[in-house]
Amino acid sequence: MTRTLSAALLVAMAFVPDGPAASAAGADPAQPSIITASSPAELQEKFCAADATTEHVLVLPAAMFVDSEELICPVGPYKLYRILEHNDPDDFEYYLDPPFGTTGRLGCDGKGGRDMKFVAVNCRPE
To answer: What does the pLDDT read at residue 29?
Structure first.
């Protein structure tokens, strides 16, 4: 499991030019941050505190999306879920839907194979 998470983190970090050290060295604020979590409680803590005006990449266990969890943030509840992609039954589409009708929120989605243990989900300001 740790090996798989490490591989997912390396892939996600490849999209950030200077990796995690960039934020400490005054990186471009337009670069997405990478948020990892291993439980819904940890995700809620980190995600709800994230800056809703910048992009983020979430690297999460795919199992977090199975039971349609909710994250309760100050702007409202976010819903985690996955659906089988209708055009490609070997893949799931992963969502972290923002509360309807609020401002200062993030909309998140991604795609991954049915057998993947970890997925990366892109979040953007809405």
So the answer is: 57
